[in-house]
What we know:
The protein is mainly alpha-helical. The chain contains eleven helices and no strands.
Amino acid sequence: MVKKAPRRTAARILEVAREQFNRFGEPNVPVAQVAAELGISPGNLHYHYKAKDELVNALFDSHAEALGELLAEAPDVRDMASAESFLRALFGQIWYVRFLYRDLGDLLSRNRRLETRLQPLLADEALALRLMLDRLRREGVLSLHAEDIGLVADSMMMVLTFWPSHEYVRAPRQALEPEAAGQALTRGLRQVLHLLAPYQREGAATGPTAEVLAP
């Protein structure tokens, strides 16, 4: 039998850990459960990741890289259609590692590296949202005073950051399962777009955006 390359095994460990953490919550998934799901020994898993925190940190690093690439697109958002696409992609990135956000308080209380890495990422996200809002204001899409941009961006950040926790509270047994993704993302996106609705100039919320905002 040909042995799998170590890097391939490490990547598979991360993928299964992410799936298990997302479904059951990181505090409820011991490393032995991840190993069993993979069909490998805990010792084999330990060879690649010596502690569960290393799994969490590696998944966060991957998330931060993907999110950073997406946030770089914020200044290019020029209308509500592109704003919706951008925000939907943000929600998609968060959903992919939803355990990080659902279990955020618990993780931060015991993972110092995650704490130090998360703050810059949230700051980058807040900046990207402010840049998006400012571009929409300058394009005449939003009737938004420059001094209000920070407050609106902060409100959007709160929805994005705590949306997985809200989804979990409203339906603990179903909300974060893979098949719930479509409805969960639509609910989150609708909340964020409603924050912008009072500032939209007439005719700005058309097409897909209007459909999302509809009750």
